[in-house]
Write a structure and sequence with these properties.
It is a single chain. By secondary structure, this protein is an alpha+beta fold. It has one domain (1-70). Helices cover 18% and strands 8% of the residues. A three-stranded antiparallel sheet has the order 2-1-3. Strand 1 and strand 2 form a beta hairpin. The longest helix has 14 residues, at 3-16.
């Protein structure tokens, strides 16, 4: 997997819900499955996917929510 695809996968891993905590509310752990956006495809907000940006999507969290994401396989 090349760096661009890895970056896209990481961006959408955030989206899929391998997350801990939210920006305003107390930390609440969630686990989920990850998928990824194809490079330059449109995201849920209508913006183009940017592999250099910290972007993600989630079904219930509002736009602008900040999260801490942890890969459960390696703890990073």
């Amino acid at each position: 997997m090349n760096k661009s695809n890895r970056t896209a996968l990481v961006a959408v891993t955030i989206a899929a819900g391998l997350m801990v905590g939210a920006s305003i509310s107390p930390a609440a752990a969630q686990c989920g499955r990850a998928s990824w956006y194809a490079l330059n495809s449109k995201t849920a907000s209508g913006e183009r996917m940017n592999p250099s940006a910290l972007t993600a999507a989630h079904r219930t969290l509002p736009f602008g929510t900040r999260l801490r994401v942890t890969n459960r396989n390696n703890g990073r």
